[in-house]
Write a structure and sequence with these properties.
This protein is mainly beta. It is built from four helices and 24 strands. It folds into two domains: 133 residues, Immunoglobulins (Immunoglobulin-like, Sandwich), CATH 2.60.40.10; 195 residues, no CATH class.
Amino acid sequence: MTEPRSPSVELQSLQPGQGAESADSGIRDADGLPVPQQIRITNITCDSFKISWDMDSRGRDRITHYFIDLNKKENMSSNKFKHKDVPTKLVAKAVPLPMTVRGHWFLSPRTEYTVAVQTAAKQPDGEYAISRWSEITEFCTADYSSIHLNQLLQKAEAIAGRMLPFTVFYRNQQREYFQQDRDAQSCFLLPTVKDNSGSHGSPISGKLEGIFFSCNTEFNTGKPPQDSPYGPYRFQIRADVLFNKTTNMYFGDFYCMYTSYHYVILVLAPDGSKGDAFCKGRLPALDRSGNRFLTYTEEEDGSLSFRHAQDVNLEVMYTEPVDLRLGAVSQISGHQLMSLSTANAKKDPSCKVCNISVGR
């Protein structure tokens, strides 16, 4: 049996001057209108949710509208939403429940909100009689869906540029990171949970464990740059150790940090690994030899040759431990450019190149 479609309320359309009415204009308390109880929030996405509630039958036939008060949880005061032109008390016609609420002007991914509801009856003079507010209910919006991530992927592909050859993945850190007292058991770089840098709705932030590597090269030398934002010591490892026929690759994010530089996060996960299981169904999978960011080609002798996109900074997240003995650590001669660090960096919500229309 097909589930009945819920009536949808487009929050973006519920603004003064666009057929909506502010819940603060011309209202008066009324006895006899039922107060919404047991608010239920279901089918939550990054920019929509379904809402329903219970209410007494007495006075239900008088209801013409619902007033919805939606606020970010961090901002508990009503009608103080960050966008100055958008009220949070909104008027929706009384439609059958559950009712779908959507609108990227209001809802951002991975954000905690509070919602409360009133029932209302529009009077002949245009004013409203209203019930008391329901209890406040809290919920959190979801990550980007695969549809949204594919939109982000298409934007990243549009600026990736031509492909340049490379031979190694590398990771820069302070000396202490590589010179800890390591026994045979701990000669490995271990995955850690990704921070909250980049797009707010990326499913990997705060959830997927991995180790970040770079592979970008200098155009004039074909080698890794000598400057780094992360430290003067560099671990280098042959590209085919991490990226080969048994490695699956996924698109994770595309963002900038109020600069002209754009970053693409790719996830490399050995087939059948824990990281691979996490990415399947959550992230767009990329063809290892046919994508715009990171590829390999098998040569006649069976070896692999590698290329990376020129016009984006690639952050490659490898999901499994990496044996330090498979590479080498050395000091680089360049500067430590901390301004280029992406640790917990916030995405520029105004950039037209790397944002999609479902919140930042």
